[in-house]
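## retry 2 of 3
previous attempt timed out at serialization; input unchanged, resubmitting
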Amino acid sequence: MSERLNIDAPLWDLNTFVGRFKHFLWVTDPRTCIVSEKTLDDAKILVEQYRNGLEPPGTSTEQVIYAKKLYESAFHPDSGEKQNVFGRMSFQVPGGMAITGAMLQFYRTSTAIVFWQWVNQSFNALVNYTNRNAKSPISTNQLVIAYVSATSSAMLTAVGYKAFLAKRASPFFQRYVPFAAVAAANCVNIPLMRQTEILNGVDCTDEDGNIIGQSRLAAVKGISQVVISRIIMCAPGMLVLPVIMEKIEPYPWMQRIKFLHAPIQVMGVGCFLSFMVPVACSLFPQRCSLSTSLMAKLEPEEYEKMKNNCNGKVPAKVYFNKGL
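## retry succeeded, writing output
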């Protein structure tokens, strides 16, 4: 091989939005979801061999890059464990398009709203758990509380908003009930699913990747950015598609294919998500930073611990994995 690749470094500059977009467009490729378990395991082995300079003779750069893609799409960056396929960010497009399309189509009855919000929040809970900061373990009781709270908040928001609009607005605005419920639930689901990070803090490192302390403030910042990203991820599909469907549904040709309305919405959401998943993941750097001067003001105890770990020389910024 002509030039050796740094297997642990990103292929693009993740300090820029364009670099992060290219990276997440690459790593969230839905096709990686249908790769066999053996192929994923082999990819992990090749990545580890290459890292140690022990790859098989004749291994090409293209093979290493593809193995790196599979490894980063299927294995957790903190623990190195293989992720549940349904919780991977690469499954956001196929999973999200099916569930969101159903939510947008079946919004007219409270029963349908409750059912699809439950399905959506069950999916979200799995995604949030899979993409958490793995260095902050969460107990079974905490998982159950987080799941029930998020699912309940989504259902209550959806049913309450529908009842509110039924008396005060046109049927068109009821199409936005699913988005209101999803946005509200994201604000509950993600923080609760990652509550141990908020309670105990996340590991913070210096510029060179050495762990020098923990910070709850870092956890709050990272989780807040994830909440914003998730809402933006689903917003275009859930806000634009209702307008399109409202305009085209009255046409005679659309009335003749009512059985295709749900598949049309699913495909429409898929088109939006194919673009919005990498965009939303790219909004904030994965390796998030936090000013230690802010820690000194808001987390003096943790700052002092960090100061002791650094022999009094605390860096201006610390870094942490915000999760996805």
